[in-house]
Every structure is written in structure tokens, then in C-alpha cells.
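Can't paste images in this forum, so I'm doing it all in text. The chain is below; anyone willing to post the predicted C-alpha cells underneath?
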Amino acid sequence: MTPEITVLTLSGLLQIVQFAIYSVIARRQVGNRTALGPRDTAIELTGTAGRAQRAMNNHFEGLILFTIAVVVTTHAGSSAFTAACAWAYLIARVFYVPAYLFGWVPWRSLIWMVGLVATALMLLAALV
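Text version of the structure:
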């Protein structure tokens, strides 16, 4: 398994951890009955629960681009540079969770940018 595939696997596990964090915090806000209900109407989460939901959704969005980067990098050939970029992405995503949950301004945006730039560099490296 290439380092990039390993990091992609760990990123998938991070998504599961974020989903668990979101689920626990959201359930505390809306209660068990609502959390277990059919959700026929939209539930607006606020505060930490809303931030946990948005952080989780943001990781889904970033994970799409990162997955593309890992696929093309793996196909084009893994390198120490692309492996370092993959690890930078994962480390940024790990730090992004508390940055979003606790509202670290401007750190949250800077951490997000590290992950995006790492992904973009992987894509560019696959082209050259």
C-alpha cells in the first residue's frame, strides 16, 4: 500500500470519528426522540453541534478532492513529495476538527488552506 493510500484510509477513519463526534453533540442538543426520529423536517443545529456538523461536511467535501489526488498520484507514481503532501493533508484535517469546534479564528481557515494546498500540490505533481 502506498503512503497516499494509507493516508486516504486514515482520512476515512477520521471521517467516522467526526461523524461520531457530531452525532453525540447533536443528540445532546436535540434530544434522543428527535435524533432517533424520521427527520421529516430539517433540524437546525446551533453552537458546537452546528459547527461539528459543518466540520464533518467540510471533510466530506475535502475528501472528494483528496481521493482524486490519491488516485491519480498512485497511478502516476508515488513519491516522497506526494507522500509528504498526503500526510500534511491528514494532519491539517485532524487539527481542523478542534479548530472548527472551538472557533479558532483565523487558525481554522489557515489549517483548511494547508489541506487544500497539499491536495493541489499532489494533483500538480501527478501531472509532471
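The first helix runs from residue 3 to 30. Residues 69 and 106 are 26 Å apart (CA to CA).
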